[in-house]
Structure formats: structure tokens, C-alpha cells
Amino acid sequence: MKPIKVTKIAWLALVKNKIRSLLTMLGIIIGVAAVIIMIAISAGTEKSIQEAITGLGSNLIYVQASMGAARMGPGMQSSGGGLVYDDAFAIAEQINGVAGVVVEQTSTQNVKAGDTILENITIMGTTADFPSVRDMEIASGRYFTQDEIDRTKPIAVLGSNLAEEMFGETDPYGQTITVGDSVRLTVVGVFEEKGMVGEVDYDSRFYTPITIVLEKLTNNPFARFLGDRVRLIYVEVDESIGENSERTLDDVIYQIEFLLAKRHEVTLEEPDFTITTQQDIITTQESTTAAFRSLLAWVAGVSLVVGGIGIMNIMLVSVTERTREIGIRQSVGATPSDIRWQFLTEALLLSLVGGLIGVVAGIVGSWIFGQASGMRTVIVASSVLLAFGSAAIVGVFFGYYPANQAAQLDPIEALRYE
Fold first, then answer.
1. Fewer CB within 10 Å: C terminus or N terminus of the chain?
2. Apex 58 CA angle, 57 and 61, nearest 5
3. Would you say residue 247 has pLDDT above 50?
């Protein structure tokens, strides 16, 4: 029997029992949609994390203080790690291939401008390379210089949202802001809007020389004695590094490790700092989300198996109900192969149509979930193909047994069946 004729007969048999066919497909629909939605959520989360990491800047190396005892100089120990503010200067001045170095120290304070008082504002003390390293542009005014940082000049640059909250339509340039109880700073610039990077709103922050935070906004009487410890140093590597085979990112990392080990009087085998790159973080994150995505896909795939079992059950019932029909077809010349292909095609049509509906439901469901939950979802083309292909395989796998049972019926016994 020709495939077109077999498909037509199978389709008519399914249309004859629309409600039962739809209910049979429901497991496949849910399974396919679940696979697509689960993977879309995982891919969206991964994309958001990647953008958050790259949004911090480009070509960055992260030098972080290690936890535990770290030597700060002859006879001095620190429990918070070995990085100090001066390490950043040493890296900038002595390491080849470094385009910029940023140190950040934050403090949470109330700020006041005129009659406007804002509570719990993040004050970010930072250094002169901050705009270039973090890919932030000045919208008006200017940024502070290294000389102003060294002189602890009381100036500040505002995030765009914070400037609007404090001054509205008034130009903030030259305005005075009181931070905490008595630290008065003059606004010299406003950043362009950057938006959210991960969970950090850079537009609602207050930027000032790091020396202001270290000396006036840090409640630590031992800060100067310990050398102004810092938790993290951002190092921007020159874009030419990596393109020139003679100089690689690993070379720059090794120079930094050697320099800091020498400054801190530690060995490279037991440093009081750790160095990672953006790619290291992205790779770690990708491996984690890939495992999570696989888990979600397997969990969602269980629905496909359940749907396949549903197809097999209904097809077995269908074979029983249509036993006499099978006997009549065999009596007029249908071979066991024709019978097998008819029922196998019915099972395949159920899974394919259910798969198509599931694909549409998965894509629409991913969009609705993203809009309702606020989480980012990204449709992965491979997940659509995987889910639809799995539905087809499930239909053939679970449809074969009922089809084979129908093909093996004895024609005489089938005709006698009531």
C-alpha cells in the first residue's frame, strides 16, 4: 500500500475520534512544551549572567584577596586577604599590557542635597580609570583625576537616576551634597545611563575618589595602619594582548602574580590573592547552567515518555475496538505489513501533530513566562528540534507494539470478533 494512502486512512481514523485523539496527544503536547520552556528559562538565565559579567567591562582580569591570614609586611598579619590600595598602582606602573586599573571601595550612606534626603545610597569610591574600565560615559561635566584622588579632593560624580532624584531638572554641576553626617562633596559630573548590570543599578550610585571613602566614610580606625586593604582590583588588559602571538593574557597574569607575590612576600604556590578572567567566570557559569539545563530537559522529557505510554494505551484500545475492521481488511487482501503500517502511522501522526502543537505552546509559553515572571527567556532552536524529534521517536517507539499486535491478528478470529 502506498504511503500516501496509508497516511490518509490513518488520518481519517484519528479525525473520526477527535476528542480521544486530542486527549491522547496531550501528554506529547505538555512534554514538548515543557522541554522548550525549561531550556528557554535556563538559556535566558545563562545569557543574563554572561551580559552581567561582560557588562562590568571588557578584557578584565580580577585580582581578589584570598580569605585567611595574609602577610601585610614584616610582622603584620591581616585576616581579610593581602591586597592593598597601593597594589593597584604597582600593577598599573610595572605590568606591560595593562590599559587601566580600578579599585573600588563601597559604603552605604544617607545623602542630602538641599531639602532632598535619600537613605542608604551606595557610595562607590573608585579610581581614575573607572569610566574606561567599566565602559561608562560622562553625560555632563567631567570625571575626577588621579591628582584629585591623591589629594582626597571632596568631589563626586552621580549616576543618571540619582542625579534626577536629587536635583530634578536642575543642573547638578557645582552643587554640594552632604554624605553621612558631615562629609560635603561638590558634584563635578553625571554619568550617562548604563542601566542594570546583573542586579546592580549603576545609575543610582554615587561615585567619589576612593580616598574619600577610605579616609572619611570607612568606620575602621586601623584602615591606614593596615595599608587601606581592598577586596578586589580590576585590571583592564590592552586589546592587542592575545592578537599578538608574542604576548598573551597568560603572560600578563603571570606578571601580576609574580609582582604581587614579591610585594606581599608570599610564594606563587601559596599566594594571598586569586586571579581570574572574565572567560574563567563565564566558563564556570556555562558548565553549571549546562548541567542544570540538562537536568531540566530530562525532567521535562519524562512528560514525553508519559505521553508515549498514553499513545500506546489508546492504540491498544483502538486495536481491540477495530478488530473486526482489521479482519475485513485482511479478508480483502490487506497484508500484515499494511495493517502494521496503518496503526504505526496513526501513532506517528498523533505524536507529530502533538509535537507541532507543543512547539507552538512552548514558544508562546516561554514568552508568557518571561513577561509574567520578569525572568529572561531565550528560545533555543536546538531545543525545538530536540523536543519535536523526541516526540516523533516516542510515537514510533510506543506505537510499534500496538501496530504489531494488530498485524498478528488471525483474520478468521478477527472476523468472528464482536
1. C
2. 90
3. yes
